[in-house]
Specification:
It holds the Pfam family EamA. The chain has a domain at about 1-75 and about 135-200. Helix content is about 75%, strand content about 0%. The longest helix has 26 residues, at about 110-135. By secondary structure, the chain is mostly helical. The chain has 10 helices and no strands.
Length: about 200
Amino acid sequence: MNSLGIVMVPLLNFILGGEKPSRYAFLSLPFVLLGMAFLSLDSEFSFGLGEWCFLMAAFFLAFMFIFNSRAAAKISALPLTTIQLITTGLITGFFSLIFEEWSFQQPPAIWGWFAASLLLATSLRFLLQTYAQGLAPPSHTAIIMTLEPVWTAILASFWFAEIMSSFQLIGCSLIFIAVLVNRAPALKMWLGSHWPSRKTAGRP
């Protein structure tokens, strides 16, 4: 459901006074929604309190993505990422102290995974994302970000030897198609520069 927030970005960004999404962005959205449905939904799906909470989280994620893209166009990625992560750490740490019990009696392997999560999956990942958001419009980066569940499914199949179902394969394919549709103009330009037409190639 969180990936749904990324799908909302092009339309919400336009409502908030940002760029008007291209027709390719709108054409890619049905493929994204179908792809995420194939990846996420099953016969036991029901819409309850948990799903409403995820839907609200999706809205907040969309707003964060939009405002982060606008800030990244004016502020360097490193200080912007640092401010965001420190603020998040202070807020969540405060509530964790109130509502949770802290224990440091963990095996050494856990601390290794904690360090990898802290440095690679969080700090480095958000730094790269923030830097990339400063280089491209939100409607483009949002569609590319929908590949996140695709990479998760693919890496899980290799890392944990999980077998992808036919629904998951269809979902991954649809999201890949969505990215290609969204970036169709750039793809055509790239293909034209590398494989010129026969008429152009035959000219002196």
